[in-house]
Amino acid sequence: MGTKEAARTPSDSGVLEGQSAGPMVPRLALGARLRGLREERHISREAAGRVIRASRSKISRMEGGRHGFKLRDVADLLTLYGVTDEAERATLLTLAEQANTPAWWRYYNDVVPAWMQVYLGAEQAASVIRCFEVQRVPGLLQTPDYARAAIRIAHSDACAEEIDRRVALRMTRQRILHRQPPAQLWAVIDEAALRRPVGGTGTMRAQLRHLIEICRLPQVTVQIMPFAAGGHAAEGGPVTVLRLPGGQLPDVVCLEQLTTALYPDKPAEIECYWDVMNRLVVEAESPDETATILHRILQET
């Protein structure tokens, strides 16, 4: 299957309609409200878990928006927390129903592990995305050919059809940069990711040209962390911080690993990663220099 055909998305073939961000926002909203109600009543997660025949960790995942909701569980928790107002109960139960609505990426369930569903929900709903990448160009900025090469490296045992589907998923995710209003992406990329010829010289040169073009979009800011900068604030590895719309939901931090991801959700942890991102943009080259640096690397590639 050629690259152009592989980049087809479900909506191209009529499977998808619209640009739904999926259930992440209602999950986070309901989880935050349940956490607030529990803490107001000074009820532990263990005690809440016993009421719905679940563990402390499940309550934590529910409150963090990383787990779906059974209507019976929500109703039992609301009773435990003393919520008797019928209007409020109805509103929260409606959120629970919305939190279980299948997202558009269910079409790719065979290549979307459970841990990634959390990230996709936050990414597709986000108004602002801040990220730092060390080894690769960020997925939202990749060309189809570069994405295919990177995916082949990460999934060396995958068949051609699976690779095609992973490429198509990655290309579909990029629509958030072109919707109305678009997500604002601010990426800091280590120079190593731009010097490493993923997919070969031709693929890498096309990727660099794509970066030069996409940096002209007002919703995309790219900075480069040069080798000359030495040590920097994110030496622990890649980081993504997502801000959801409305100002009421907690930010989402994602630390992707080889086969899973971590989602630090304590306020102090989230604040720490925002501090890292803010330090990175000071330590990296100015966005005004990005095109010049990319042109130089392109000439040297």
Continuous helix count = 13
> According to CATH, what is the class of the largest domain?
Alpha Beta
Percent in strands:
5-15%
Strand order of the largest sheet: 3-2-1-4-5-6
- How does CATH name the architecture of the largest domain? 2-Layer Sandwich
Walkthrough of the structure:
The chain has 301 residues and is α/β, with parallel strands linked by helices. The protein has 2 domains: 24-99, lambda repressor-like DNA-binding domains (434 Repressor (Amino-terminal Domain)), CATH 1.10.260.40; 110-300, 2-Layer Sandwich (Endonuclease, Chain A). Helices cover 48% and strands 10% of the residues. It has helices spanning 3-6, 24-40, 45-51, 56-63, 71-80, 86-99, 114-125, 144-154, 160-173, 191-195, 201-214, 267-283, 290-300; strands spanning 128-133, 184-190, 220-225, 239-243, 252-256, 261-262. It has a 6-stranded mixed β-sheet with strand order 3-2-1-4-5-6, sandwiched between helices. A hairpin with an 8-residue loop joins strand 4 and strand 5 (252-256). Helix 8 crosses helix 9 and helix 11 (201-214) packs antiparallel against helix 13. The longest helix has 17 residues, at 24-40. Mean pLDDT is 89; it is low at 1-19.
Secondary structure topology:
Elements (H helix, E strand, L loop, with lengths): L2 H4 L17 H17 L4 H7 L4 H8 L7 H10 L5 H14 L14 H12 L2 E6 L10 H11 L5 H14 L10 E7 H5 L5 H14 L5 E6 L13 E5 L8 E5 L4 E2 L4 H17 L6 H11 L1
Parallel strand pairs: 1-2, 2-3
Antiparallel strand pairs: 1-4, 4-5, 5-6
Helix pairs in contact: 2-6, 3-4, 5-6, 8-9, 11-13
